[in-house]
Amino acid sequence: MPQPAPHVEPDAARPSTPRVTAVAWRRLSGKAPSRPPAGATFHTVSAAATVLLMLVAIGAVIHEPVLIPPLAASAALVHGAPTLPLSQPRNVVVGHLLGALTGYAVLATVGSSPWATALAGAATIALTLLARAPHSPACATPVVVVLQHPAPQSFLPLLAGACGLLVLGEYAASRIRRNAPKYPAYWW
Fold first, then answer.
1. Rounded CA separation 158/147 (Å)
2. Residues of the chain with pLDDT under 70
3. Could you tell me where the beta strands, DSSP code E, fall in the chain?
4. Domain that holds residue 107
5. What angle do CA 74, 80, 81 make, to 5 degrees?
């Protein structure tokens, strides 16, 4: 007759978390997407570079900085992942304008500081979500406003125009390349 196994008290000092083996980790981590074809990469980079260079050229002509870091990040999204909701025209334009307005509101109420930039970035996340226009690069726009204090009468129209140029650039680029996904998936 088999004898019952002796009762062993669990070790209180040792946590009872499960161990993740290498096999389980591979299952959890998934696989990275495949590299896009060289032609598609060249097309994407060419379209993004053209728009970014146009923003720089416009800025040089009018003696105002038009290309700001958040717009370069927007170009990466719009040209690199044109089918994502974050890349659609509504999200790009509304997101950046809400970010700029939030930056001006924070600047007017609490002034310019690293704490204010964090507050403005977080508020922009909330406002873009409420407006159904999330666009992650737009959360950096209020940081530019709070830290650099650009004049709103020139900054806001330049920002809106730059966003429009990004959108129209990808609209044109998606029509030039035969197999590219058509941009935008929706306008508004």
1. 18
2. 1-29
3. none
4. 37-176
5. 90
Is residue 10 situated within a structural domain? no
The angle subtended at Cα 162 by Cα 45 and Cα 164, nearest 5°, is 90
Question: In the Cβ-directed half-sphere of 30, how many Cα atoms lie within 13 Å?
Answer: 3
How many helices and strands (H and E) does the chain possess?
A: 7, 0
- Confidence (pLDDT) at 108: 97
Please state the pTM of the whole predicted model: 0.81
Q: Which residue has the tokens 């990004």?
A: 166
Whole-angstrom distance, CA of residue 45 vs CA of residue 58: 20
* Neighbour count for residue 90 (Cβ, 10 Å): 17
What does the pLDDT read at residue 126? 98
Q: Would 23 be classed as within a structural domain? A: no
CB atoms within 10 A of CB 97: 18
Which pLDDT value is given to residue 32?
82
**Four-residue CA torsion sign, 133, 135, 141, 142:** positive
Tell me which amino acid residue 150 is. P
By the 8 A CB rule, do 134 and 90 touch? no
Q: Taking a C-beta distance cutoff of 8 angstroms, is the pair 141, 111 a contact?
A: no
Number of domains in the chain: 1
